[in-house]
Design brief:
Blueprint lengths: L3 E7 L3 E8 L6 E4 L3 H14 L2 E8 L6 H19 L8 E8 L2 E8 L5 E5 L6 E2 L2 E2 L2 H13 L2 E8 L3 H20 L18
Parallel strand pairs: 3-4, 7-10
Antiparallel strand pairs: 1-2, 2-4, 5-6, 6-10, 8-9
């Protein structure tokens, strides 16, 4: 059964179309108008082995906040929809990733409860038209709408680009692991018998 989702969301601030295939090849077509976000989403698809298409038109004449956060909302909704009843998935995933001088750990639980712990002392910096503080806004939006636990820890680092890129790559790898089918276990990975309520 295909684990795909197609999300369309329009507000007075943004218009977003997003498609996701959890069992893809890491292919992506990303156009958000925020170059650094495009780069991060391309990495997310590649390292998560997801196929991801995103087309976003936002109020970038103000800043990129609404676009970044709303893409996160849509990605979270797509993850939740594509996972379906979550039968047979591993549910948990974690990954520790080195990125030059930076080391990042990301851990996820696709168990149906939204929570985000962000322990990343990322310097305040503008990367193109992407303010570094928006990395946290993006992932909080994803976690809240995917109904997943997300814990991000930057152990150390100096370069802002490397720190955020490390977060995206580590989280992609953790999501890939958590969403994979577990060949040893059948059914829903919970003693409750459901992960959708």
């Amino acid at each position: 059964m295909a684990r795909t989702a197609e999300i369309a969301r329009q507000t007075a601030e943004t218009k977003i179309e997003l498609t996701l295939d959890l069992d893809g090849q890491g292919q992506s077509r990303i156009e958000t108008g925020v170059g650094f976000l495009d780069h991060m989403l391309t990495l997310l698809a590649k390292h998560g082995a997801f196929d991801l298409d995103v087309k976003a038109d936002g109020d970038l004449h103000i800043d990129s906040h609404h676009t970044v956060e709303d893409v996160g909302i849509c990605l979270g909704k797509a993850l939740r929809e594509a996972l379906g009843d979550k039968v047979g998935i591993r549910r948990y995933g974690h990954f520790t990733l080195p990125m030059d001088e930076t080391l990042v750990t990301s851990a996820v639980d696709l168990g149906g409860r939204a929570f985000c712990v962000w322990r990343a002392d990322v310097p305040n910096e503008l990367l193109g038209n992407f303010h570094s503080s928006l990395a946290e806004e993006f992932w909080r939006a994803v976690a809240g709408n995917a109904l997943m636990n997300l814990h991000v820890l930057v152990h150390y680092g100096r370069n802002t680009h490397h720190m955020i890129e490390g977060i995206f790559k580590a989280t992609a790898r953790a999501l890939r692991q958590a969403a994979e089918h577990d060949q040893r276990a059948g059914g829903v990975p919970s003693t409750k018998g459901t992960l959708t309520d």
